[in-house]
Structure formats: structure tokens, C-alpha cells
């Protein structure tokens, strides 16, 4: 396309495309690395890696371990290794399921409390937390299979404000300039440690619950919804 002059017609040269790739790469590294405290430790394993290399990763991360095959839908081929005996079995299953023969080993947060925040941002950099959601079931039960409550019920004000501040920082750093995002957290009930599970830079299934809970539709006509909210309050 570059040779045909297509990028020149739309004023998109090599430099601009490279800049976009560099920015995307930087944002991805930022979200994955964070400050080192709010992310799960992880390690990649590829097909052909020696058994002792796998064991080294397993001992580094501890047990139980979450095994996630790369590029599969709905967690197909994934599993949890609770013991050293089942570790090799779960990894082998995941490698076979992955089209690129690669799995990701993740530190387990099974049993932690799971929370979601629906966040919206506009071009003026105003950020609002539409709704907080708490999963009744702990980590280990898929969000889609868990009963949820909105707003959250068991966080202290300090814990909630911490998740709020983290959500605002994440949506700004990732670069969602307008619209909604869903950000999910795991909180250790024993000591309050927080892990960022994932971010969906779009409306999700949780957005439907949030829109009904707060009567602000972040799924359909946001402008009319905010107008109705303004009229009711004034």
C-alpha cells in the first residue's frame, strides 16, 4: 500500500504509522508492568521448552497456578494447577489448545474478592465513575457466572477511593479519550492488596447492569440520559 501511494492519499505516512505502533506498544507495556505492585506475576511457556524450565517458572510463581493458552476463545484449554503432579498435565493441554503453542502462567488470586468499576471519560478529560460492582462469588468463578451487586457493599471508603483513583489513572494512561471502560480488580480480603485483573476499553456486559443501577445509560444514548439526570436533579 505504501508503494501504491495509498498512505499518502490519506496523509498517513510511515512515520505516523510507526508513531501509532510505538504509542500502542508503550500503553501495553504500561498496563502490563504498572508499578510492579498491582499486577499478577506471570511467565510465558512455549512448546519445546524443556521440563526443567517449566518447573523453574512454576517454583517462581508458586501454586496454585493459572494456565492460560494464547489465542483461544472463552479460556478453552486453560486450567488451574494445584499440585506439581498436575502442573505438566495442565500445561501440555494448554499448549495443544493454543494455535501458536504458547501458554501464560499466572500467579493465582483464587479466593480474592472481585470488583468492577464502570468509568467514562470525555474530551475535556472529565472522568466519572458510573458505578461500582461487586461479585458475590470470589475470584475463580467467571464473572459471567457470578451473581453481582451494584453498588459494591464490602469495601471501606479508603479501599473504594483507592480503586477509583487507580481506575482514573488507568483510563487516562491507556488513552481512552471518550466513552466508557470496564476495569476489574481483585482485592485480598486478608490484607487489602489490590491486583488489576483486566480493562475492557469499551462497553461490556457489566455496562448494562451499571446503566440500570445508576439510571445512566452508558450503552445507548448518553447525551439524553445525562440530560434527564440533570433535569431530575434541578
Automatic annotation (TrEMBL):
Annotated ranges, domain ATP-grasp: 29-225
Enzymatic reactions: hydrogencarbonate + NH4(+) + 2 ATP = carbamoyl phosphate + 2 ADP + phosphate + 2 H(+)
Chain intervals for the UniProt region annotation (Disordered): 15-59
InterPro entries: ATP-grasp (IPR011761), ATP_grasp_subdomain_1 (IPR013815), CPAse_ATP-bd (IPR005479), CPSase_dom (IPR005483)
UniProt keyword list: ATP-binding, Ligase, Nucleotide-binding
Domain of life: Bacteria
Enzyme Commission number: 6.3.4.16
Listed Pfam families: CPSase_L_D2
Cellular component annotations (GO), alphabetically ordered: cytoplasm
PROSITE patterns, A to Z: ATP_GRASP, CPSASE_2
Biased composition (Basic and acidic residues): 15-52
GO biological process, one term: glutamine metabolic process
PANTHER family hit by this protein: CARBAMOYL-PHOSPHATE SYNTHASE [AMMONIA], MITOCHONDRIAL, CARBAMOYLTRANSFERASE FAMILY MEMBER
Protein name: carbamoyl-phosphate synthase (ammonia)
Organism: Leptospira weilii str. Ecochallenge
Organism placement in taxonomy: Bacteria, Pseudomonadati, Spirochaetota, Spirochaetia, Leptospirales
